[in-house]
Amino acid sequence: MWVYEKKLQYPVKVSQCNPTLARYLIEQYGGADGELAAALRYLNQRYTIPDKVIGLLTDIGTEEFAHLEMIATMIYKLTKDATPQQLRDAGLGDHYVNHDSALYYQNASGVPFTAAYIQAKGDPIADLYEDIAAEEKARATYQWLIDISDDPDINDSLRFLREREIVHSLRFREAVEILKEERDRQKIF
Amino acid sequence: MITMKIHTEKGSRKVAIKIDEEYYQLLGQIQAADFVLVELTLYLDTHPSDEQALNQFNQYAQYSKQLKRQFESCYGPLLQYGNNTVPIGPGWEWKQSPWPWQV
């Protein structure tokens, strides 16, 4: 089971109401390389991955939910005081008529989240390579978000998330090596 | 300084959680300590025989608990399902605002 902690993993401060930026950030909420996809991918793959890396998939998958909460907090804070007119001006008119200011699992273009974004191949190396690629794609997305963002407070939180993708990628690469070592040892004996 | 007053019924008295500078400072210290624990957890998952990292993990786990005791005694429970470090009450403080996205 999971235990909720009533705190964010890292502080999320917002300089001012900015629905345009919120619209871009939705990419990391319900997009293909977003935090929801990451959490669901790792926590699903772990059932069929060798014991040696189950802990890693569990712990990274869990951390992804903390990142999802950070992204949700950014979007919530950036839009909570926006008027319908401001949402419309930000290109969120379509979102408003369907969801008001509620968060919705979709990407920056409004495409709803789908399980088709994630794979579970049952082959440990194939799964871990997908995980490494996912982290690198998320890192790139965070970089593009930082480049397009005009909110210095949000950028601070986005830089934290970008760095976490780098660490996760490194840990997954180590997991690949651990499994390769184990495979080679089995060949010798 | 942002002050948010959250009112809950505790018997006939109303109490308020004051979200002050100290709240953010203490929360920041917890976030920093817990970040060390997250980072060491992932590191130990792929380097399980690093005793030095393990010692550091145990040391920070104690430190984090100490900070959480301090926070929870001032601002209410941080952890769900009985994992709180300070007894809850009077009243079911867990459901009390603020939630993480509200501060």
Helix and strand layout, with pairings?
The complex is a heterodimer of chains A (189) and B (103).
Chain A: H1 19-25, H2 27-30, H3 35-45, H4 51-79, H5 84-89, H6 93-99, H7 124-148, H8 152-188
Helix pairs in contact in A: 1-4, 3-4, 3-7, 4-8, 7-8
Chain B: E1 7-10, E2 13-16, H1 21-46, H2 51-75
Antiparallel strand pairs in B: 1-2
What does this structure look like?
The complex is a heterodimer of chains A (189) and B (103). By secondary structure, chain A is mainly alpha-helical. Chain A has one domain (19-188): Ferritin (Up-down Bundle). In chain A, 67% of the residues lie in helices and 0% in strands. Chain A is built from 8 helices and no strands. Chain A is elongated and about 70 Å long. The termini of chain A are far apart. Chain B has one domain (7-102). In chain B, 50% of the residues lie in helices and 8% in strands. Chain B has a two-stranded antiparallel ribbon with strand order 1-2. In chain B, strand 1 (7-10) and strand 2 (13-16) form a beta hairpin. Chain B starts with 6 loop residues before the first strand and ends in a 28-residue tail after the last helix. Residues 7-14 of chain B have low confidence and may be disordered. The chains are: A mainly alpha (189), B mainly alpha (103). Chain A binds chain B through residues 3-12, 53, 55-56, 59-60, 63, 69, 72-73, 76-77, 167-168, 171, 174-175, 178, and chain B through 24, 27-28, 30-31, 34-35, 38-39, 41-43, 45-47, 77-81, 83, 99-101.
Question: Top keywords for this entry?
Answer:
heterodimer; A: Ferritin; 67% helix; B: 103 residues; mainly alpha; two-stranded antiparallel ribbon; 2 helices
Query: Nearest-angstrom radius of gyration of chain B?
Result: 16 Å
**CATH-scheme architecture of chain A:** Up-down Bundle
Mean pLDDT of chain A: 97
Distance between the termini of chain B: 12 Å
Largest sheet entry of chain A: none
Q: What is the number of independent domains of chain B?
A: 1
User: Which whole number gives the mean pLDDT of chain B?
Assistant: 88
Strand element count of chain A: 0
Report the CATH topology name of chain A.
Ferritin
Order of helices and strands of chain A: HHHHHHHH
The residue ranges of chain A in which pLDDT falls below 50 over 5 or more consecutive positions are none
Structural class of chain A: mainly alpha
CATH homologous superfamily classification of chain A:
Ferritin, core subunit, four-helix bundle
CATH uppermost class of chain A: Mainly Alpha
